[in-house]
């Protein structure tokens, strides 16, 4: 027993030492610029399909099949630009038979890419699986399904085009593969946003989902990346397609995770969409877990102690886009965001870096 515990402690130590390198972005040069792939009618047809006739499982199947065709066209163009070709994977739904990866009948909560058979399965019932789907209509839910499909397509593309900025460190990890797929998801969603084929609300729902799908299983070999890792990978892809100051309908891109639209010029007020993380539940859960872990190590078995150690830091944080009002005072150099816990702050104190962008753009234009 003692030898087994010593071996596990060594494995735990090695995992903690090596984990910071896993998935670290090491891109040999600048990230790719905005996609030159023209927007086909297929992309606009997605939105038309979403708001048209049909509902439920039948609408979802038609929508995802159309999205599957679009993703094949998009990534085939990217592959062709590198002198490569890209096979189209099969698309499976709940009830279909899979032919690889040890899967027989596809069923909830399956959403996967099988490289051996070249198949993508889309059988996850998001309403049953994720908080981000709560309260969404069938039509709004399709934007989340699109993000999941784009992520699975990312795995397929990674095999031909590589892991982009997530290839580095001391060896290939599951986390690198997953973050590269999230990054490719952001590229596709950014391309659709930039070309008016997706609304900002649709992207925001997808970003909320990507944060929620992160995990805290750092020591687990199949660790997919922390919630913030996955959100950052998504928005890194987004930033390759959008630029600060770019218009998305009524909205303007301020940073890769913040958007605004003006409400008034005197005083200068904006409606803003900002990604915010609530860690209050995470802190409370981890404090309690720390106390229980200490007790296990003092009075419990070696296995109990290790088990509690592996649970540390897994209290969940909740991240989501919020809609607030930001008031900017150009003369005093201060800003204030509605419904937060802070009083007016100096512009350069905005942790989201949105207020400095607005000030540089609008205060200078106004000559203040």
Radius of gyration: 23 Å
The poorly predicted ranges are 1-31, 282-313
Give the overall silhouette. Answer: globular
Q: Output mean pLDDT.
A: 81
Characterise this structure.
It contains eleven helices and ten strands. It is α+β, with helices and mostly antiparallel strands and 368 residues long. The protein folds into three domains: 41-242, no CATH class; 244-276 and 320-368, no CATH class; 280-311, no CATH class. The model is unreliable at 1-31 and 282-313 (pLDDT under 50).
How are the SSEs placed, and which strands pair?
Elements: H1 2-18, H2 41-51, H3 56-81, E1 90-93, E2 111-114, E3 119-122, H4 126-129, H5 138-161, H6 174-194, H7 200-212, H8 227-239, E4 247-248, E5 251-255, E6 258-265, E7 268-278, H9 280-299, H10 302-311, E8 318-329, E9 334-337, E10 345-346, H11 354-365
Parallel strand pairs: 1-3
Antiparallel strand pairs: 2-3, 4-5, 5-6, 6-7, 7-8, 8-9, 9-10
Helix pairs in contact: 1-10, 2-3, 3-5, 5-6, 5-7, 6-8, 7-8, 9-10
Task: Give a brief outline of the structure.
The protein is α+β, with helices and mostly antiparallel strands. The protein has helices spanning 2-18, 41-51, 56-81, 126-129, 138-161, 174-194, 200-212, 227-239, 280-299, 302-311, 354-365, and strands spanning 90-93, 111-114, 119-122, 247-248, 251-255, 258-265, 268-278, 318-329, 334-337, 345-346.
């Amino acid at each position: 027993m003692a030898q087994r515990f010593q071996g596990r402690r060594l494995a735990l130590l090695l995992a903690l030492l090596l984990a910071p390198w896993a998935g670290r972005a090491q891109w040999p040069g600048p990230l790719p610029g905005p996609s030159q792939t023209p927007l086909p009618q297929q992309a606009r047809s997605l939105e038309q399909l979403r708001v048209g006739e049909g509902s439920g499982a039948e609408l979802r199947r038609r929508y995802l099949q159309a999205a599957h065709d679009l993703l094949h066209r998009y990534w085939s163009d990217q592959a062709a630009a590198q002198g490569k070709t890209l096979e189209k994977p099969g698309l499976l739904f709940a009830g279909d038979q899979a032919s690889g990866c040890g899967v027989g009948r596809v069923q909830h909560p399956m959403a996967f890419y099988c490289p051996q058979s070249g198949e993508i399965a889309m059988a996850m019932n998001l309403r049953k699986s994720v908080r981000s789907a709560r309260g969404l209509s069938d039509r709004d839910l399709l934007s989340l399904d699109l993000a999941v499909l784009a992520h699975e397509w990312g795995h397929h593309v990674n095999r031909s085009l590589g892991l982009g900025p997530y290839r580095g460190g001391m060896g290939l990890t599951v986390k690198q593969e997953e973050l590269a797929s999230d990054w490719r998801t952001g590229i596709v969603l950014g391309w659709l946003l930039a070309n008016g084929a997706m609304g900002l609300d649709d992207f925001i729902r997808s970003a909320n989902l990507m944060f929620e799908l992160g995990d805290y299983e750092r020591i687990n070999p199949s660790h997919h990346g922390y919630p913030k890792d996955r959100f950052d990978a998504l928005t890194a892809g987004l930033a390759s397609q959008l630029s600060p100051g770019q218009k998305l309908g009524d909205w303007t891109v301020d940073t890769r995770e913040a958007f605004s639209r003006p409400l008034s010029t005197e005083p200068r007020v904006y409606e803003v969409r900002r990604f915010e993380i609530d860690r209050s539940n995470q802190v409370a859960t981890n404090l309690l877990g720390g106390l229980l872990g200490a007790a296990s190590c003092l009075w419990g078995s070696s296995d109990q102690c290790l088990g509690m150690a592996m649970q540390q830091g897994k209290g969940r944080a909740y991240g989501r886009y919020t809609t607030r009002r930001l008031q900017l005072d150009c003369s005093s150099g201060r800003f204030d965001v509605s419904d937060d816990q802070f009083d007016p702050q100096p512009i350069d104190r905005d942790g989201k870096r949105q207020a400095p962008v607005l000030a540089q753009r609008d205060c200078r234009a106004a000559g203040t």
